[in-house]
Amino acid sequence: MSATPQGRGPKRANGEREAEILDVLLRADTALTPGEVAERLGGEPTYSTVVTILTRLYAKQLLVRHSRGRAYAYAPVTDEDGFAARRMRSVLEERPDRQAVLARFADGLSPSDADLLRRLLGSDPHQDQ
User: Fold this and answer.
1) Number of helical (H) and strand (E) elements in the chain, helices listed first
2) How distant, in Å, are the alpha carbons of 10, 30, 41, 46, 62 from that of 49?
């Protein structure tokens, strides 16, 4: 007996589904309802699964929503770079020794990324040249 319902592929992890739905919303030029998200995903996952995932993403404060007719329309709170920055902050906040984490992060940067970070922090090593 198969572990998956007939006609459907293997079950995907919630994180994968969340990322897939978030990607649809990031590529959209406007907020989308669950039905519009499900349609753009080709009907897989189901509408009810899309609603559940959108609700979770909203609860995680990754999405904003507003009423549109009888449904909510959802949009990301930031762009892809903003989400990457949020993940970096989240990892930093999980560790008790922020200085050690930041030092290790900085040590692993390429010279060009280290220069970029210095410029962004206002201490450009090339500004006197």
Assistant:
1) 6, 2
2) 15, 21, 12, 5, 17
Exposure string (b/e) for 56-92, b if CB count within 10 Å is 16 or more?
Answer: ebeeeebbebeeeeeebbbebeeeeeebeeeeeeeee
Segment 48-59 mean pLDDT: 94
Residue 99 has pLDDT above 60, yes or no: yes
Distance, CA of 49 to CA of 55 (rounded, Å): 10
Question: How long is the chain?
Answer: 129
Mean pLDDT of 104-116: 91
| pTM for the predicted model, two decimal places | 0.67
CATH 1.10.10.10 is right for the domain spanning 8-122: yes
Task: Kindly list the distances between the CA atom of residue 9 and the CA atoms of 12, 14, 44, 48, 70, in Å, as whole numbers in the listed order.
Answer: 9, 15, 10, 17, 31
Q: What does DSSP assign to residue 65?
A: E
